[in-house]
Amino acid sequence: MMALFRKINWLGVGMLMGGVHLAVAAPVSSRVTLQQAYVAALGYDAKIAAARSALESDQEQVGYARSFLLPNVVAAANGGYGKSEIDYAVNTLMMQDKTTPYFEKYGYTLRLTQPVYRKNYIDGYRQAGYLQQQGELRFQLAVQDLALRVAQAYFDVLLAQSNVELADAESQATAKRLDTVKIAHSVGTITLTEVYDAQARFDLSRARAISAQSQLDVARQALARIIGNTPQSLARWPDSFPLLAPEPANVETWKASAIKDNFQVLTALAGVDVARLELERQLGLVYPALDVVASYANNYAGDGTFGGKNTGINSGVTLELSMPLFSGGSVTIKSRQLHADIHKAEHLHTDAKREAELQTQQAFNAVIFGVEQIKALQQGEKSSQSSLDAMQKGFEHGLRTMIDVLNAQQQLFSAKRDLVSAKYQYMLNRFKLKAAVGQLTQADIDAASALLDAK
After folding, report:
1. C or N terminus of the chain, fewer CB within 10 Å?
2. Does residue 341 or residue 441 have the better pLDDT?
3. Domains of the chain
C-alpha cells in the first residue's frame, strides 16, 4: 500500500492544500498564460474544491479507525428520592413522630475499557489505510482532470480566436473579389452567374464569421467558469514549434505504465483491498474479544426510617472475555454478500486496466498521427496558397473564372483552419497520453505555457 503513496504530492498539491487562496486574490493580467490560468483554476474551480474537501474527509479514516483501539472512558451519575413505608401496627416499637418516609439517593460511576484483542477493530484499522489511500488517489485524479480541463478550455479559446480571425479575413477577401466581379460585370467581361456566386460566398463567409464570434464567446465563458475571470487575451501559438513523437516510441511500454500508474487503475486496486478487508472485518465479529475493564463507583442512599445513611464505594480491574455463539446467521449471510463485493471490485479493477490501455492507445495514436497530420496540413496550406495565386493570375489573363478563384480561396482558408485545430489537438493529446499513464505533471503545463508564450 505504501508504495502507491509515492503518487501523492505532484502537480501542486502543496499549493492546493495551503495557499490556493492566493490564486484567487491575485489580480489577473490582461494577457494570461496557460500556467497562470492553471494556477487560477487551482483556487477557483468548484470541482477541485469539492475534491479537496473530500480528501480532507478521507484523511480522517485512519484516525477514526484507530480510536476503536484506544481506551474508552464512560462516566455516569444518578440521583433522586425514595420513599419507605412502615406498618406501625406491626412495628409497634417505632416512634411515628421520629421517622420520615422520604430519603435521597445518588451516585456516580467511572468505567474505562481498553480493548486487548478485537479482530474486527484491527481489520478495520488496516482497512482505513486503504480507504484513505483511495481518497488520495481520487484527489490526484481530480487534479489531473483539472489540468486537462484547463488546457482544453484554454485551447478552445485560442482556436475560437483563430477561427474568428480567419473568418474575418476570408470575408474581407471575398468582399474584395465581389467588388472585382461587380466591376468586371459592369463592363461585360464576366457573366452574372459569377456575380451571384461571389455574392453567395460573401454572405456565407459573413455567416461563418458571426458563428465563429458566438463560439468564441462561449469558449471564453467556459474558461471563465474554471479560472474565475475572462482574460482579455491569451498567449498564442508560435508559427512553428517542435513536433515530438511519444518517447518511448513503443505503445506497449506506455500501456504497461498505464496499468501500473494510471490513477483510476490504482483507485480500483485499492478498492479490491478495501473489499477484502471488509470481509475480514465482518468475520472478525465471531472471534473472541478480550478487554481490560477498570471501574470506580460511589453510591449514597439515605434512610428515611431512621435518618441514617448508606455509602458504598466499589472499584476494581477485570479482564473480560466474550465469545459470540449465535447471531441468527447474519455473519454467514454478510460474508456471502461481501464475497460478491470482492468479485465486483476485482471486475472493476480489470475494467479500469482495460480502459487505461484503450485510452493510452488512443492518445498514443493521436499524437503519432497528429504529427503527420500537422506536417501534411502545413504542406497543404502552402499548396493551397500556390493554387490560389495561380488561379488569380489565370483569372487576370482570362484563363480562369472567378468561381475558380473563390474555390481556391475557400480551400486555402479551410486548410488554415484545419492546421490551427490540429496544432491545439496535438498538444492536448500529448497531455491526454501523459494523463493516461499517470505522468501528467506541473512541468508539462509549464512547458506548454512557455511554448505558447514564446511568440
Report:
1. C
2. 341
3. 2-69+118-286+327-453 (1.20.1600.10), 71-117+289-322 (2.20.200)
